[in-house]
Amino acid sequence: MQTRILVVDDELSMREFLAILLEGEGYLVEQAENAGEALLHLEREPYDLVVSDVQMPGLSGIQLLGRIKEIAPETAVLLITAYTTAEQAVEAMKLGAYDYIGKPFKVEEVKVLVRKALEKRSLVVENRRLKAVVSERFSFSGLIGKSKQMREVYDLIAKVAESTANVLIMGESGTGKELAAKALHYNSPRRSAPFVAVNCGAIPEALMESELFGHTKGAFTGAISDRVGLFEQAEGGTLFLDEIGELPLQLQAKLLRVLQEREFRRVGGQSSIKADVRIVAASNRNLEEQVEEGTFREDLFYRLNVVPVRMPALRERPEDLIPLVEHFYQKYAPFTPEGEIVTPEAAQALLFYPFPGNVRELENLVERCVVLGNRVLTEECLPPQVRNFKCVNPEKVESTLPPEGMDLQAYLDAIERKLLIQALESSCGVKKKAAALLGMTFRSFRYRLAKFGMDDNS
């Protein structure tokens, strides 16, 4: 698209001179003899750059600049005048002018300034576009679903995002905990600062402290230079600690100190470094049970669990399943057809299957179907464990292994869910009695109810 420039000057000769000069550089140039006429142009169509005189009848170039920044903030402005003063230059730059040059000027000087003004304008526009893309991707559009459970997650994220409170996201693997963390970050005042994620279970214990806090040269064998840790990388932004339950007890104590004091030291360092970082942690484990077992610090748990967010399992929100399939088809299949994407038979099989791997498993399933060339998701393109899951119907649980195999975890989940229901029915809904019938603690019983979406917190 051709670059559009508007030249504004009450002197016809100057307007035409600048128009000829800029058209010779390949720009599309239009003219206005005063600020009022220029504003009419700007209201009708966008311009990449306005080159304006300062001294004009009616509104001055400085006043025009202020109006341009109100109605077309992405338009670059270059001011030209024969009466240059330091005060005017300062005012123009404060109002957002790219530059301010005095007459008489050199032709090459104008060419260079116009080119640089347009380059800066392009960078600003691209930066805003990328931020909009990131914001859209990681706002609530990254989390798909209109179920009651997901609406509750959206509402909670919206309420918490503006605060600096620590957040603990709980949920099974594959439920979208990192997406929820990104939604928190990109809807918060920290959105323009870094979002840094680390899986606490994926880094060797010996390296975890250096990974989090960094180290100084010579702190240990192999430390040949200073290294910035994740806390420093996330300065001003959000640090997402995934699988926090995997963090060793020794490091839990050091993390607790950072949360309390808002400062830390690099490994081998002598001075403290301030930590302006929001912590969002996540776990697929029951941290309260880990606290009881002594593998997770109780004081750290309460520091992290200021605002708990629970990500529902996919089996708890069946109404979101087909919209998720359609979303993933659009993601992986450029040939996605209009109309039906999932056949009724496939939809029935998907709704019956409990998806122990949750949304991640569903995404992999859809990608597999696309790779195999299926324009529509049919029952035939589903993996065997989904097609054959009828053999683990909770109402007809069998104890023999079918010839085609089965998903053992899904089978056990089906049995567990059925026994939970029977225990609640036998105890007339009294959960402590139901827990006793199953030989487990009340807390463990509540955890299993939550696992299957059966805990109404009553």
From TrEMBL:
UniProt domain Response regulatory: residue ranges: 4-118
CDD domains membership: AAA
SUPFAM superfamilies: CheY-like, Homeodomain-like, P-loop containing nucleoside triphosphate hydrolases
Chain positions with 4-aspartylphosphate modification: D53
Domain Sigma-54 factor interaction: 143-371
GO terms under biological process: phosphorelay signal transduction system; regulation of DNA-templated transcription
A single GO molecular function term of this UniProt record: sequence-specific DNA binding
Gene3D superfamilies recorded: 1.10.8.60, 3.40.50.2300, Homeodomain-like, P-loop containing nucleotide triphosphate hydrolases
Pfam families reported for this sequence: AAA_lid_14, HTH_8, Response_reg, Sigma54_activat
Keywords: ATP-binding, DNA-binding, Nucleotide-binding, Phosphoprotein, Transcription, Transcription regulation, Two-component regulatory system
Protein name, entry field: Sigma-54-dependent Fis family transcriptional regulator
